[in-house]
Amino acid sequence: MTQDKLKKAVGWAALKYVKFNSIIGVGTGSTVAHFIDALGTIKYHIKGAVSSSDISTAKLKNLGIPVFDCNTVDMLDVYVDSADEINKQKQMIKGGGAALTREKIIAAIANKFICIIDESKQVSILGKFPFPVEVIPMARSAVARELVRLGGLPEYRQNVITDNGNEILDVHYLQIVDAIALENTINCIAGVVSVGLFANRGADLVLVATTNGVMVIE
Ligand code: 5RP
Fold it and tell me: Which among 15, 32, 211, 215 is least buried, having the fewest CB atoms inside 10 angstroms?
């Protein structure tokens, strides 16, 4: 089975966790694009969505799903999003699609983070996938120097401006032994908007698409 077929299977499997008449937190990326397609089929049974990126917002609106401003929503029952890597503790690297900051905000107001992945995203130690750091443009070099001090190799993501008008540094070769400590340390660097380590707030439920079907990890 192709990776996209696995992404589609898990995107549609997530529909089961959407409650009637609720507002759903929606992530970003090619796996979530399948979830949005699935959501379109039940659009009259939900109130709408809070979206983590302009690209997901456009897709939701195209399907006729109302998109709410995050400021108008107190809490969400579920947030459905994918990840670039996930470990056994359900800690993740996210932000391959540069939407990490809005993804973190929505994850923070959701009761349940449902992570939908194909099996290639499961790892024992996070860090093979270079984790992104969103930075205020004027702080890019200063933040990069601090990341080098921490032992990483930051690479400027060329020609990418986030939906928030910022830039991305992708950090290579950092051994992530304690993801919570590293997330906290990077969050404290002046000029960092957010880091694509989702360790303090990991996933609650993981749906994994395998060639034998979709597995649920609670
Ligand atoms: C976007 C993300 C995505 O969830 C992550 O990059 C996985 O994407 P895909 O579903 O395309 O493999 O964090 O910022």
Answer: 211
Distance CA 108, CA 105 (A): 5
> Of the candidates 186, 176, 184, 178, which has an alpha carbon nearest to the alpha carbon of residue 149?
186
Provide the annotated active-site residues: 103
Say how far apart CA 135 and CA 66 lie, in whole Å. 30
Give the phi and the psi of residue 44 in degrees, each rounded to 5.
-80, -5
With a threshold of 0.85, does the pTM exceed it? yes
- Nearest CA, atom 2, ligand 1: 95
Q: Tell me whether strands 205-210 and 213-217 are parallel, antiparallel or unpaired.
A: antiparallel
Q: What is the pLDDT of residues 33-68, one digit of tens each?
A: 999 999 999 999 999 999 999 999 999 999 999 999
Q: Which residues contact ligand 1 via a Cβ below 6 A?
A: 27-31, 81-84, 94-100, 103
